[in-house]
Amino acid sequence: MLGRKFQIRWGGSTDLIHTEDVARALLAAADSRLDGARVTTSTALAAIADVVKLIGRIWPGAAASSPRRAADPLSRGDRRHTLPEGAGPGARTSLEAGVRKTLDEFARLQRQGRLDARELV
Questions:
Q1: Tens of pLDDT, residues 28-60
Q2: Range of 71's domain?
Q3: Does the reported pTM lie above 0.85?
């Protein structure tokens, strides 16, 4: 979006989930009549190198890269948890759809002059 290189600061594989899936899960839990705090979500294990390739395929000319370091220490691998019956948030956003939506949103913000890149180094 900004025409400059960016390196994802970790490599290996990590859990990813699209923010809209998290929001749907939280709204479903809030609307549920179930007692207690039972929100779990479904994550996908993704190799950061594959995410970089996907970004390049969706946004030709993107200059993203990733080191060959270990995964984020919080990553625990693929987990396919579901919410309790009756509180399900719907289908999970695929990795490709999530990356595409994210890039589209960044492009929209860039066109509007609202993409704040001060934290990028």
A1: 878 877 777 666 666 778 888 899 899 989 988
A2: 6-111
A3: no
